[in-house]
Amino acid sequence: MTDAPREHPRDPLHGITLEAILTTLVERHGWEALADRIAVRCFTTDPSIKSSLTFLRKTPWARQKIEAWYLYDIRRGFH
Q1: Taking the model in full, what pTM does it have?
Q2: Contact, 34 vs 40, CB < 8 A?
Q3: How does pLDDT run across 24-59, given as a tens digit for each residue?
Q4: 20 to 30 A Cα–Cα from 3, which one of 13, 57, 77, 78?
Q5: 10 pLDDT exceeds 90?
Q6: Which residues contact 7 (CB under 8 A, 6 or more apart)?
Q7: What is the spatial distance between Cα 12 and Cα 2, in angstroms, rounded to a whole number?
Q8: 46 vs 24: CA distance, rounded Å
Q9: Given this model, what pLDDT does residue 77 score?
Q10: What domains can be seen in the chain, in order of their start residue?
């Protein structure tokens, strides 16, 4: 018999919402740093968590960059 496969083996983002990731990055680095690193209008013009979440949920490449930055911070010891 085999064990049932895990749904998310070793996924460091499992259980962390996009909102939590974005909020953490904004608190640590600020909107200006987000805009410098990922040039999208939702970070530069009247930025808000709500508008940014809407954009990130519809734009996979931007979401991947945000998630990668968050993981980089975790590996560097920002908790």
Answers
A1: 0.83
A2: no
A3: 999 999 999 999 999 999 999 999 999 999 999 999
A4: 13
A5: no
A6: none
A7: 25
A8: 18
A9: 84
A10: 18-76 (1.10.720.30)
Predicted confidence (pLDDT) at residue 20 exceeds the cutoff of 80: yes
CA distance 32 to 43: 7
Round to whole Å and give the CA distance between 78 and 42: 24
On average, the pLDDT of the chain sits at 90
Contact indicator for 49, 25 with CB cutoff of 8 Å: no
| pLDDT value of position 32 | 96
- Looking at residue 8, the DSSP 8-state letter turns out to be S
| Residue carrying the six token digits 């945000």 | 66
| Measured torsion, CA atoms of residues 73, 49, 29, 15, in degrees rounded to the nearest 10 | -20
- Residue 45 phi, psi (nearest 5): -110, 110
